[in-house]
Amino acid sequence: MDYRFSGDGLSIRDVGMVYRRDDQVTTALVGCSLEIPVGSWASLIGASGCGKSTLLRILADIVAPTTGAARVGGLSPSEARAMRSFALVSQQSTMLPWRTILANVELGLEVAGVDKAERRRRAAEAIELVGLKGFEQAFPAELSGGMRQRAAIARALTLKPRFLLMDEPFGALDEITREKLNFELLRILKETAATLLLVTHSIAEAIILSDVVAVMSPRPGRISHRVEIGFGHDRTAAMRDDPRFVAYEAELRHALHGPPTASRPATELSFA
Ligand SMILES: Nc1ncnc2c1ncn2[C@@H]1O[C@H](COP(=O)(O)OP(=O)(O)OP(=O)(O)O)[C@@H](O)[C@H]1O
């Protein structure tokens, strides 16, 4: 089928994904479509196993969809990878333990063949952007989990990607560090004008970091709801106290779990 794509953002059209391993067949995604305009921020939320990571991995050219197609900045995922248009940051972003933070952050540039002076300059800039200045010579084991994730984000930013694909980047962090990094990420997104697609299990994180939250139904995953978050791009921690924030939270819980019942008030619902 010929898929005609408009726009230069992230685009998923009618994507289906069937995994086959030995004689086990898993239908992970059916008929998923999503458009994320350039410069906007989107999140994917949904129950465990509904295919969020699979969608991200399709855009990142790690797996190919069984049906449908994806575009990153108007290019196929493999073309976009060759152009280094996107960067992927995941929960367990690996740092090489024998390299300093500076050397780890430089890694992507090194692989891309960027010369040493330019590597140093861009790595130092990214390290400053994520608030790790002063820790250039530290080794990963000497940093906290939050600082290592900042370093992973810095490494992703050195290649100046137009698209940031983030798979639960703060999932392993405590609540306080996580919220702090949410707002640091907002600042970075504004400074770099990157387009974001974030996979998260946290409804609050999705609201804080998104213009639109796409809710996926349980496996086989499809996009069941889209909730537009009307906060604009000037966001502060005070947004959590805004009545609209509470309303978005309720709407997203409802989309995930159905209406609250007397025995399961909305405030006690959680999802994983
Ligand atoms: N490489 C693979 N081979 C076979 N099945 C897979 C593979 N990767 C994912 N799956 C299956 O596809 C479905 C979707 O997985 P995926 O990791 O995309 O979901 P997810 O929503 O990101 O889950 P979680 O929130 O738990 O990370 C799951 O049933 C999973 O077991």
UniProtKB/TrEMBL annotation:
<dbReference type="InterPro" id="IPR050166">
    <property type="entry name" value="ABC_transporter_ATP-bind"/>
</dbReference>
<comment type="similarity">
    <text>Belongs to the ABC transporter superfamily.</text>
</comment>
<keyword id="KW-0813">Transport</keyword>
<dbReference type="Pfam" id="PF00005">
    <property type="entry name" value="ABC_tran"/>
</dbReference>
<keyword id="KW-0547">Nucleotide-binding</keyword>
<dbReference type="InterPro" id="IPR003439">
    <property type="entry name" value="ABC_transporter-like_ATP-bd"/>
</dbReference>
<dbReference type="GO" id="GO:0005524">
    <property type="term" value="F:ATP binding"/>
</dbReference>
<dbReference type="InterPro" id="IPR017871">
    <property type="entry name" value="ABC_transporter-like_CS"/>
</dbReference>
<dbReference type="InterPro" id="IPR003593">
    <property type="entry name" value="AAA+_ATPase"/>
</dbReference>
<protein>
    <submittedName>
        <fullName>NitT/TauT family transport system ATP-binding protein</fullName>
    </submittedName>
</protein>
<feature type="domain" description="ABC transporter">
    <location>
        <begin position="12"/>
        <end position="243"/>
    </location>
</feature>
<keyword id="KW-0067">ATP-binding</keyword>
<dbReference type="InterPro" id="IPR027417">
    <property type="entry name" value="P-loop_NTPase"/>
</dbReference>
